[in-house]
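Take one protein record:
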Amino acid sequence: AIVFLWFGFHSTSSVTFLAVGILVGAVMRWGSQLLNIPKIYWESFSWSWQLNAHLYRQFFYGALSTSMLVLIPVAIRSAASLIGVGEIARFNYAMKLVELPAGVLITTLSTVAYPGLCALYEEKSFIKANYRLHIYLQQAIFLALNALLVGWFFSDSIVNVLFEGRKIQGADTQIISRLLQVALVSLPFVALSSLFVTA
């Protein structure tokens, strides 16, 4: 996508170049995954549709939860654009600082939990799966609360170290610090949502 966008700068159709780049990248990623599917899967694959009401219901809840995580930052950015000049930039800086612990701690734990839960669900060991999920939820909330507390009490120091002296004024760093504190409150809820979607 970046290569196509670079070529697009020399054209009047930069958006078209970007769209084509995203499409090519998605096809390449999808193709690489298809090529790496074990041969035994294709030999045992059944073309009968395995769709039922339970699958639709679970898919709806998973899609709704994931959509909320994606749409809320978009809505907040839209609201920030109405406040004044620079508000979107301040919000983006604060969100990037929250995405770091969310990605390193919470998303990683969800990724680790996924194969184990899959194996238990496949064995129909639902009691063990629920117990394992309960343990993962405790760990995720513990990690999220630790990140929240550290970030909350040291938000000024974190923002000053990362942004002060980089064409960001002192007043702006204070605003970013306060936004960071507010955004960090979401970490325990992100932890819960991420693991429930995984389950």
Observations:
- The mean pLDDT is 82.
